[in-house]
Automatic annotation (TrEMBL):
Source species of the chain: Dictyostelium purpureum
The protein's role, per its UniProt record: Broad-specificity nucleoside monophosphate (NMP) kinase that catalyzes the reversible transfer of the terminal phosphate group between nucleoside triphosphates and monophosphates. Has also ATPase activity. Involved in the late cytoplasmic maturation steps of the 40S ribosomal particles, specifically 18S rRNA maturation. While NMP activity is not required for ribosome maturation, ATPase activity is. Associates transiently with small ribosomal subunit protein uS11. ATP hydrolysis breaks the interaction with uS11.
EC number: 2.7.4.3
Compartments reported by the entry: Cytoplasm; Nucleus
Protein name per its UniProtKB record: Adenylate kinase isoenzyme 6 homolog
Length: 176
């Protein structure tokens, strides 16, 4: 497969809903002049879905539509993608996969503040306890590009920004 040389890396930030993916991704993208793709927002705004799931109160994401929409941009590099699922993205897209983990008590509070319905809260808490997102990443990407980071506090978020910034700097020095 032909790989186009990228001038900037692509980073996937994944984790159970409520772990702080979007806020972290947004700051990192802004600080490094990367494009940020919050997949949930993208699906809604660009109608990259197959309708509405009334039980979980979210859209049925159409993976093919999302992949088609992002392909040309991802090939160029300089993208931060955030989504709670990682297994359906092409492995070749990402140079770093960050899995955010949060304490379930903290997640529960975040879900209540968001007004999540009980079944959605329970489903997401179970997902975090059983490490579903982490396993998905480990089954989809090489271990050496996966970084697991805690995301419980503002200090964690700042530390995570610094960790990713250092990684990006190292990537740029090695690849340019």
């Amino acid at each position: 497969m032909n790989h186009i040389k990228r001038n900037k890396p692509n980073v996937l930030i994944t984790g159970t809903p409520g772990t702080g993916k979007s806020s972290l991704a947004s700051v990192v993208a802004q600080n490094h002049e990367f494009q940020h793709f919050d997949i949930s927002t993208l699906v809604k705004e660009k109608e990259l879905h197959d309708g509405w799931d009334s039980e979980f109160q979210c859209y049925y994401l159409d993976e093919d539509k999302v992949l088609d929409y992002l392909e040309d941009t991802m090939v160029k590099g300089g993208c931060i993608v955030d989504h709670h699922s990682s297994e359906w993205f092409p492995e070749r897209w990402f140079d770093l996969v960050v899995v955010l983990r949060s304490d379930v008590k903290i997640l529960h509070e975040r879900y209540e503040k968001r007004g999540y319905i009980p079944i959605k809260i329970e489903n997401n808490i179970d997902c975090e306890i059983m490490e579903i997102i982490l396993e998905e990443a480990r089954n989809s990407y090489k271990e050496e590009i996966i970084v697991v980071l805690p995301s419980n506090t503002l200090e964690d978020n700042e530390s995570n920004q610094s960790t990713i910034a250092d990684w990006i700097q190292n990537w740029l020095e090695k690849n340019n």
